[in-house]
User: Fold Prevent-host-death protein from Phormidium yuhuli AB48.
Amino acid sequence: MKTIDKSEITDNFLEILEQIQSEGEEVLVTEDSQPILKISPYQKSPTTAELFGELRGKVQYFEDLTQPTVEEWQES
Assistant:
């Protein structure tokens, strides 16, 4: 991860954004050597269908999933 001081980012902001976009590397912005901001490239999160699509129709439920399971977790 590249680190840059806050004072340097104002003069080179567009260049830094282009570099983040082209290289995909995150940039940590600091002030007085303390991190204040992290700039990272956008990453699309997968949808539920994309994550679990292969499992559709393959999962079997043997109990009612909407009922509480308090009886199974009695305190000792």
Remarks:
- The two ends are 49 Å apart (CA to CA).
